[in-house]
Write a structure and sequence with these properties.
This is Nucleoside phosphorylase domain-containing protein. Pfam families: PNP_UDP_1 (PF01048). About 35% of the residues lie in helices and about 25% in strands. It is an alpha/beta fold and about 270 residues long. Bound molecules: adenine (ADE). Adenine binds next to strand 5, strand 9, strand 10 and helix 8.
């Protein structure tokens, strides 16, 4: 057994980058919830819709694909709700499409790119882009010991410290729930989660990536200020188009940084 303060052989092995993390990243899946967020990224990397979808027949999920520099890039979007015709936002669709994309495409890295609400009290402004360090849920309340922690479901993301430093991006914690608005109970949980940004997908995506052991990064651009005085839905819709342009630029910077590097170098 290792003496106190020394590493055991297993600990030393665990600290080594895994073999797949020691070769350059070649295969990336970008998960995006809304078409308005997805299309600028699709156009930027000249991705095209996969005519042989890897997803089950009949689901609305869409895969765009292409090569950019040394990378195979897929962007997956859960598509429009078949009945209502709006984007399939939220935790269920994003978890399902992430699971299916990992199974079918075996990516080296997942990137969830999207918009988020931001807290000005935590330093967020409209148009800011954050890399997320931790995700948790704010609307899964189970007041029974240990189930309470399961409900909150805090998880670390793959934070990419070299990327954050090089691109000079802001870092913050993300809180996820299935509502655009925020009840008082949600607000207390978001504060307890120490969140700077709030979305409707992140914690569900990191849950899946954690289960399947694929590193996941989160790039979130702020469309609305949650602790401001404007109604959230109005502010979100007003800023959506302009902020997706900032998101698209940030994703391009992130992809350029990743190109040619191993996961362990990010
Ligand atoms: N996406 C953009 N703004 C949001 C908000 N305020 N809450 C949840 N998801 C969002």
């Amino acid at each position: 057994m290792a003496a106190l303060g020394e590493q055991s052989e297993e600990q030393a092995m665990a600290a080594q980058p895994k073999p797949q993390n020691r070769r350059p990243i070649s295969n990336i899946v970008i998960v995006v919830a809304m078409q308005t967020e997805a299309l600028p990224i699709v156009n930027r990397f000249q991705l095209t819709e996969d005519p042989h979808s890897p997803f089950p027949r009949g689901v609305p999920w869409v895969r765009y694909q292409g090569t950019y520099k040394d990378l195979n890039i897929s962007l997956v979007w859960p598509g429009k709700d078949p009945t209502l015709g709006v984007d399939s936002v939220g935790t269920i669709s994003s978890a399902l499409v992430t699971y299916a994309a990992i199974q079918a495409l075996q990516p080296d890295l997942i990137i969830n790119a999207g918009t988020a609400g931001g807290f000005k009290a935590k330093g967020a402004s409209i148009g800011d882009v954050f890399i997320v360090s931790d995700c948790a849920f704010h609307d899964r309340r189970i007041p029974i010991p240990v189930f309470d922690l399961y409900g909150v479901g805090v998880r670390k993301t793959f934070e990419a410290p070299n990327l954050v430093k090089e691109l000079n991006l802001k870092v913050g914690k993300l809180s996820t729930g299935d509502s655009l608005d925020m009840t008082q109970q949600d607000e207390s949980s978001i504060i307890a989660n120490d969140a700077t940004v709030k979305d409707m997908e992140g914690a569900a995506i990191v849950y899946v990536s954690d289960l399947l052991k694929v590193p996941a990064m989160f790039v979130k651009a702020v469309t609305d200020i949650i602790d401001g005085d404007k109604p959230t839905a109005e502010e979100f819709l007003q800023n959506l188009a302009a902020v997706t342009a900032a998101l698209d630029l940030a994703v391009e910077q992130v992809i350029n940084f990743i190109n040619g590097k191993c996961v362990s170098e990010l």
